[in-house]
Design brief:
The protein is an all-alpha fold. It is built from five helices and no strands.
């Protein structure tokens, strides 16, 4: 099991980094771009993006990251590297609660409600729909990003603690 710790640590870092980057990209480009376009276009584009995100490329980073972090924590604990184990576990727990659960309980229901919307011909009606969706969605996405970023930092600290233990 000792040989698995470093590869699993790197896989943990890669998976939490990937999902942090995914959420971060929505903050600093995607949603700002959608907010800058016509609301009819923004609604249609968001509906298409939400429909396309459920795919085999997204699945491992989103759903398996807490599992990978928990397995890595278990391996570290098995080697009596308790500081690293706690940090890996804390990163997984933070991601699970602050990003995965928030997504399941808030963002996905919002996305599903938007998917049912027929884009109105009236620009003012489309503007009302988009404003009611975009601002709260971005708030919750920012929370997911912060939680994922915190989990990324905890994962980095766990790996750093492994290095300092080996030195």
């Amino acid at each position: 099991m000792a040989r698995l710790l470093m590869p699993m640590s790197m896989l943990s870092l890669l998976s939490i980094g990937a999902i942090f980057g995914f959420f971060y990209a929505w903050i600093c480009s995607t949603m700002w771009g959608l907010d800058a376009t016509q609301p009819k276009v923004a609604i249609t584009a968001m509906q298409a993006m939400n429909a396309s995100v459920r795919n085999p490329v997204f699945f491992p980073a989103f759903f398996l990251t807490p599992v990978i972090l928990a397995v890595t924590a278990f391996i570290a604990a098995n080697q009596n590297l308790m500081r690293a184990a706690v940090l890996f576990f804390a990163g997984g727990a933070l991601y699970f609660v602050g990003a995965l659960l928030v997504t399941a309980l808030v963002n996905v229901p919002m996305n599903e409600a938007l998917a049912q919307v027929t884009v109105p011909e009236d620009s003012d009606a489309a503007q009302d729909i988009w404003q009611a969706y975009s601002a709260p969605w971005q708030f919750w996405n920012t929370l997911r990003t912060i939680a994922s970023g915190g989990a990324l930092v905890l994962t980095g600290l766990a790996i750093f603690s492994l290095r300092s233990k080996a030195a």
